[in-house]
Known about the structure:
mainly beta
Amino acid sequence: xxxxxxxxxxxxxxxxxxSRQLRRSESIPGVVYGKGIExxxxxxxxxxxxxxxxxxxxxxxxxxxxxxxxxxxxMVIVADLLQDSLKGLPLHVDLHKINLADKIKVKVKVNLVxxxxxxxxxxxxxxxxxxIEIECLPSHIPEHLDVDVTSLTLGHSIHIGDLKELPGIKxxxxxxxxxxxxxxxxxxxxxxxxxx
Length: 196
């Protein structure tokens, strides 16, 4: 996972009024917290945040903070992002300070590879789990987890426990939880036509 720069400014005032003022000036409020530091209120440009988390990996990019006094040079990931439900614009962000030597838990997207054999037989793909929680060092966070579905037949599923192990990455969650299934019945062969 690549590292990106994010400019932040310390802010001493908090509350709805200040948050609205920030949003009008194309900035958003945020907070930085983590092991070894007290929570610090910050503001940052909306466009910079959007660019920093754009593309594969999204919120799991390691961000290096610039500005913000004692926060300068700290590495963070986006722990939570509150967005406007209609416009999709960021409203508030929680940034979690990380240490590259400590494992963290993050959710990564599931990327389906291939076409399931059961779909070719007329089945319907049920993609139940679009993200999977993993634990690893920040430098080992994958952009996504590939799940090969080519051999998935009708009435069968791929579960968390079926995923192959990746070096340095521990997949979390119930091993019996279904990630993807193929629903439906096999096509019935046409019944022979009786001669009159």
